Amino acid sequence: MLGRVPHSYDRRPAPAVVGFDPYRESLAGHDRLRHGQSYNDLKTSDFIHKNFVPVKIHLKERPAWFHRFDAVWTPTVLLLDSDGRERVRLEGYLPNADFLAALQAGLGRIAFVHKQYADAERWYGDVVKGFAQSHLAAEAMYWGAVTHYKATNDHAVLGKVAEGLQRTYPFSDSLAAKVAP
Q1: Contacts of 177 (CB under 8 A, 6+ apart)
Q2: How crowded is the C-beta side of 59, counted as CA atoms within 13 Å?
Q3: Most buried residue, 55, 103, 119, 173, by CB count within 10 Å?
């Protein structure tokens, strides 16, 4: 754990996005992960700065951190909750839209783990609506339903999401099987 991470905008604890890669430039807005296709995108950079404390770790300058977090490939991006616990790990390059969807789904995961179900459901819903063509949308649909169930104990949502997954994302049979009655 890194300890509590103060949010730079409102001084409340905030999740952190920790990037491990071989480039020396800073995370979110000033580096060139895959030649700037993700972090240099203004929408992605703004999203990171609004919702996370960005931390960049250069693997040659801080090899102990690279090993401490078991980063085995670059780029590796970790989403840590406000207590410094790893909640999401992204390994390898993602195209910008998928990266942004993964960050949003990661906020859903962090909210879910902290039993902030309304926030989690909103984040997952945002991924489904905003990134419907991404492979992450099917997973967000699944986790959105699981979140709804955890908040309400409404079993009906699980059957509905299984049907929705099979209809909308036929490639997601394994997700649909997880919630099928």
Answers
A1: 162
A2: 16
A3: 103
| Among the listed residues 97, 22, 25, 92, the one whose alpha carbon sits nearest the alpha carbon of residue 54 | 25
Mark whether 83 and 30 lie in a shared domain.
yes
Tell me what pLDDT residue 22 has.
67
Residue 120 class from Cβ within 10 Å (0-12 exposed, 13-18 middle, 19+ buried)? buried
CATH number at residue 32: 3.40.30.10
Q: Which of 93, 115, 130 is the last residue of a domain?
A: 93
Note down the domain range covering 143: 95-181
Q: Helix, strand or coil for residue 5?
A: coil
Q: Tens of pLDDT along 101-119? A: 999 999 999 999 999 999 9
Of 72, 65, 53, 41, give the one whose Cα is nearest residue 15.
53
State the Cα–Cα distance between residues 26 and 17, nearest whole angstrom.
12
Q: How far apart are CA 137 and CA 171, in angstroms?
A: 12
- What is the rounded average pLDDT for all residues in the chain? 83
Pick from 118, 135, 119, 137: which is nearest to 127 by CA?
137
